[in-house]
Design brief:
With 578 residues, the protein is mostly helical. The chain has helices at residues 2-10, 12-34, 40-63, 71-92, 96-140, 147-232, 236-251, 292-299, 316-323, 356-400, 407-421, 426-437, 448-452, 454-459, 461-469, 471-481, 486-494, 515-529, 541-551, 558-577; strands at 256-260, 268-275, 287-288, 304-305, 329-335, 338-345. The protein has a six-stranded antiparallel beta sheet with strand order 3-2-1-6-5-4, sandwiched between helices. A hairpin with a 7-residue loop joins β1 (256-260) and β2.
Length: 578
């Protein structure tokens, strides 16, 4: 029903022409019936009604079906056609069923075609004309109207009108429901499109994240490679130069530089590391702070071509400097959000343009350089504080124990030379040297009479030695509470242990004693023997040397003794040569 109603609603003018055609057909049937029962004058009346109905039908079909639907014209055509049919019925009187069918068809058609309000008015008008016509006929010709048929016409028309009205309300309700369903369907389509778009965006995000992960993977591999190089050498410049070699090798750049502020008081960025630069005096490459050029570099967060730098506010020497790197890429090096350096990557050997992947790699290496530079800064600051702490402890010890003056420094020098000679890594040599400077710090906690009074030493030498040896335990406790590394604590605690396991305080021996402690034990003994003490004068170097040779493999590690004596021989030969 909804499809039929939808068709009628969209094609009202054509549907009206169908109803008009049906009424014309009914009139023609009535006229044909009258051919056998009516005289010529009466027959001409029916023919005239048929012609009139045909004209109405032809007019509406030809003109109105080509124009937008007009209610008033359609209503007039339907009422006119109905009046002609009613006139034919009143004259014929013997076509009750045909007239009834045509009347009911007209009543239903007007309701559906003209709408609820206009259809009600048209049907009311048709029924009023029907009743009046039957009443007039019954008055003029008493007994000519069949009451049963008249009642059937009126009641049937009213019923059809009511059913049509009800059908229209049901259809309207169904249409509202259908519209609601269409709205819901449209909302579902919109939701589906939104979900599809979100899914597409999520896929794009996943793809982007996957690419980021791949880039990060490359970055991590580079970091691991370069960090390995860094761990092999604590020299920051060498590490930065290895970064530059990496970027030149992967991109195919002619040269690469890293510029930094060498000292806080320096007012410019100078070259700290460079590779591939030829024919340029490095000392003349200076990017002065607080200049328009540095302001532009500071404002950039990513690598950018030198050609993009505006020359408007630059000084002549800055423009001249930029001409040296005209085809290069500048990349700021940021530490904690502050400009701390500049990486310059030269043009490609092939002459090709830099790709986004190239710029991404430059950015990665710049970040790695920033990390190394930051660690170097922190390391320098820490070492400065660390050394000042060690120096303060040494001063405190030397202020109390005058015989310690120079002993720790000389011993540390011996330890550094022997450790290097024995092949220890540079960072271990450095830590061992610092630890040696503090190995006797526990003597601060020893009473002065045991350290400085020779009479007390002569009265009971064994007790005094035992008291002095306690400085190893006290020194370890002091260093541990101050937060020093355990390796340094171990130097203070065990430097009086013996290779044969008869030392102090834990009587450990052999390889149980760390290499650093074994080296310190030899160097410390030699310097102590060749230095003045409260109870004796310094022994000769030859005597100290013979003592070490005699105790090699007993009190001392023979390998360490051999390396130490070799160092002494080399030093003596150098002195003779000089």
């Amino acid at each position: 029903m909804l499809e039929l109603f939808e068709y009628i609603r969209k094609n009202r003018a054509r549907s009206v022409s169908y109803v008009l055609g049906a009424l014309l057909t009914a009139l023609l049937v009535i006229t044909i019936i009258q051919l056998s029962v009516s005289a010529m004058p009466r027959l001409l009346f029916f023919v005239g009604l048929s012609l009139a109905a045909g004209l109405v039908f032809a007019f509406y079909l030809i003109k109105e079906t080509r124009l937008p639907f007009r209610h008033n014209v359609a209503q007039g055509a339907l009422i006119t056609q109905t009046v002609l049919l009613l006139s034919a019925y009143l004259m014929a009187g013997n076509v009750h069923l045909l007239f009834a069918a045509a009347l009911l068809f007209v009543v239903a058609g007007q309701r559906f075609l003209l709408g609820s309000r206009a259809g009600l008015i048209s049907n009311a008008l048709v029924l009023t004309l029907l009743v009046l016509s039957l009443a007039v006929q019954n008055i003029v010709m008493p007994g000519s109207v069949n009451v049963n048929y008249a009642a059937f016409f009126v009641i049937g028309a009213l019923l059809i009108d009511g059913v049509s009205a009800f059908s229209l309300s049901v259809i309207a309700h169904l249409q509202r429901q259908q519209k609601e369903l269409e709205v819901k369907q449209e909302n579902l389509r919109a939701a589906y499109k939104k979900i599809r778009r979100e899914l597409y965006l999520n896929n794009q995000m996943v793809t982007s994240l996957h690419k980021d992960v791949q880039r990060k993977n490359i970055e991590i591999k580079n970091i691991l490679t370069m960090s390995g190089q860094l761990s092999e050498s604590s020299d920051t410049q060498k590490a930065l130069e290895s970064f530059l070699l990496t970027i030149m090798g992967q991109i195919g750049a002619e040269h690469a530089l890293i510029l930094t502020q060498a000292r806080p008081e320096q007012k410019y960025f100078g070259v700290q590391a460079a590779r591939g630069i030829r024919g340029i005096d490095m000392r003349k490459i200076r990017f002065y702070l607080n200049s328009a050029l540095m302001d532009y570099i500071d404002s950039a967060l990513e690598p950018f071509p030198v050609e993009s730098i505006p020359r408007t506010n630059l000084f002549a020497d800055e423009i001249k400097l930029l001409k040296l790197f005209e085809k290069d890429i500048f990349c700021p090096i940021l530490i904690k959000g502050h400009l701390s350096g500049l990486m310059i990557v030269g043009k490609k050997v092939t002459g090709k343009m830099f790709t986004p992947e190239d710029l991404n790699l430059i950015s990665i290496v710049a970040n790695q350089a920033a990390f190394v530079m930051e660690q170097s800064q922190l390391s320098n600051e820490f070492q400065d504080i660390y050394f000042k702490t060690i120096k303060a402890m040494m001063k405190a010890l030397e202020a109390k124990y005058v015989f310690a003056r120079g002993h720790n420094t000389r011993t540390a020098t011996y330890v550094s030379k022997v450790a290097s000679k024995m092949g220890l890594p540079a960072h271990e040599v450095k830590d061992l040297t610092y630890g040696t400077l503090l190995h006797d710090v526990g003597k601060i906690a020893i009473r002065d009479k045991y350290l400085l009074d020779p009479k007390v030493f002569r009265e009971d030498e064994n007790i005094v030695k035992q008291k002095i040896l306690e400085h190893t335990i006290k020194g370890a406790a002091i260093l541990r509470s101050a937060g020093f590394d355990e390796k340094i604590v171990e130097l203070a605690l065990h430097h009086h242990e013996s290779f044969d396991g008869k030392g102090y305080p834990h009587k450990i021996g052999g390889r149980e004693i760390s290499t650093g402690v074994r080296i310190l034990s030899v160097c410390n003994t030699y310097d102590a023997m060749t230095s003045d003490r409260p109870h004796r004068k310094a022994l000769s170097r030859l005597t100290a040397r013979e003592y070490l040779e005699y105790n090699a493999g007993k009190r001392f590690d023979s390998d360490v003794v051999s390396a130490f004596l070799s160092h002494l021989d080399e030093t003596r030969n150098i002195q003779k040569f000089n």
